[in-house]
Amino acid sequence: TYLRRALDLPVQDSSGLNLNFQVFPLEAGGQVAVTRFEPENLDSQSRPLVFFTGVARRSAIYFNLLSEIARRDRRRIFAVDHPYVGGSVGGGNQLVSSSLLIASAREALTRLFPVGSGFDILAHSLGTVVARHIYMNPSWIDGLKIHRMVLVAPPPTFMESLMGHHFDLLVGIFNFLDVQRSMSPATSEWARRIVH
Question: DSSP per residue over 158-178, as a string?
């Protein structure tokens, strides 16, 4: 009861759903917390869903959404709290960094699932950075398989950021080089819309 109140979760499980909390120590210190949503009508053939939260958002904020998905899809959902958020604790003077977020996600995944098993990922905001890294570097999760991944409101990648912040400059360079004259009217209109 105390833990549920501290995490802003209901004191009792909602109808048709069981909640379970797990905490795994991190090698660099601290811990990563996972909330498991398990429907009473669990389909044993359904793949689990792992949810990575957004910036400074504990999994309790997503409680209603995750509960509904778990009950509707009859699947287990594991909501991972980032270090220093919700039930997760950072290690000493360790700063929050992408490497800390990824290490905590890796620790949670490799503790939750046996080698060779698979799961789907749903990630929001900052959680999408973690999900992308894990997806692009499957060796990080020791033989686990990501079947499907949905990213909600992902921040732009480094290259997307460069393109977005420097698109006006690129268009200016194209204009300087007189490239725009050789563009078709449709391409020219597309470029104009992106800039404005």
Answer: HHHHHHHHHHHHHHHHHHHTT
